[in-house]
C-alpha cells in the first residue's frame, strides 16, 4: 500500500489550476476536499462540456496543453527548467508560463540560479540528486519536481523531500501516463493515471 510522503496544505490545493477547474465544473457543489479522482470523474461524465469549459477559462489549445496546465499545474509566473531530458514534450504549455530553459548542467544548481518553480528531469537522475550534498541549494521558488520516464523509487522520492525540499510536489510522466497530481497527497509509490483529455483519435 502506498504511503504518503507529504500531505499538501488545503490552501495550497485551493490555489491549483486543477482545483479552480473542478470548482468551475461543479459550481453548485459545496466546496469540500476533492481529489484527482473527482476531477477525472467529472471530466469523464461529459468530456465535450468539460473541454469547452476549460477552453473558456484558459483558451483553446491541444489536449496536451490542457493536461499540462491541470496536472503539472503550470502557472503564468512559472519558471520551468528542463534538465537532462528533451524539452519538446513540454512545448504545449510554453506560452502559458513566464520563463522556460533547458540545461545539461547540475539540475539543482541550475534550478537555484534560474529561480525555477518547476524542475523537470529524468527519474534516474533523482537517485543521485536526492542525497546529502556538500552545499545545499537554496530553492525557495521550487514548487514541483517532474520526473520523466516514470516515478523514481520510493526511497528516492522520500530522499527528495528530505534533501532537496520538504514541500515538493513530486510528479512523473512517461508518454501519456502520469503519476501524482496537485490535488492528492504525495505518495512514495503513486499509481499511474491517464490524461484528463485524451487526444482525439
Question: Unreliable segments (pLDDT under 50, ≥5 consecutive)?
Answer: none
Task: State the major sheet.
Answer: 7 strands, mixed
Radius of gyration: 16 Å
Whole-number mean pLDDT: 93
Number of strands: 9
Strand order of the largest sheet: 3-2-4-5-6-7-9
Provide the helix percentage: 25-40%
Tell me the overall shape. Answer: globular
- What fraction strand? 15-25%
List descriptors.
201 residues, globular, seven-stranded mixed beta sheet, 18% strand, alpha/beta, two-stranded antiparallel sheet
Explained architecture:
With 201 residues, the protein is α/β, with parallel strands linked by helices. Helices cover 35% and strands 18% of the residues. It has a 7-stranded mixed β-sheet with strand order 3-2-4-5-6-7-9.
Amino acid at each position: 500500500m502506498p504511503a504518503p510522503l507529504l500531505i499538501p496544505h488545503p490552501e495550497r490545493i485551493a490555489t491549483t489550476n486543477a482545483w479552480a477547474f473542478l470548482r468551475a465544473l461543479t459550481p453548485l457543489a459545496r466546496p469540500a476536499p476533492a481529489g484527482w479522482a473527482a476531477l477525472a470523474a467529472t471530466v469523464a461524465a461529459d468530456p465535450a462540456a468539460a473541454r469547452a469549459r476549460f477552453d473558456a477559462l484558459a483558451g483553446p489549445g491541444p489536449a496536451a496543453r490542457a493536461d499540462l496546465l491541470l496536472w503539472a499545474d503550470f502557472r503564468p509566473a512559472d519558471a520551468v527548467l528542463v534538465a537532462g531530458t528533451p524539452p519538446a514534450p513540454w512545448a504545449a504549455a510554453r506560452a502559458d508560463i513566464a520563463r522556460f530553459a533547458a540545461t545539461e548542467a547540475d539540475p539543482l544548481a541550475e534550478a537555484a540560479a534560474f529561480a525555477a518553480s518547476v524542475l523537470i528531469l529524468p527519474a534516474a537522475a533523482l537517485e543521485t540528486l536526492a542525497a546529502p550534498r556538500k552545499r545545499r541549494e537554496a530553492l525557495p521558488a521550487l514548487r514541483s519536481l517532474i520526473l520523466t520516464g516514470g516515478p523514481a523509487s520510493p526511497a528516492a522520492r522520500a530522499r527528495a523531500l528530505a534533501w532537496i525540499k520538504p514541500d515538493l510536489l513530486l510528479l512523473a510522466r512517461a508518454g501519456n501516463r502520469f503519476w501524482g497530481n496537485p490535488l492528492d497527497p504525495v505518495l512514495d509509490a503513486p499509481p499511474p493515471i491517464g490524461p484528463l483529455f485524451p487526444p482525439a483519435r
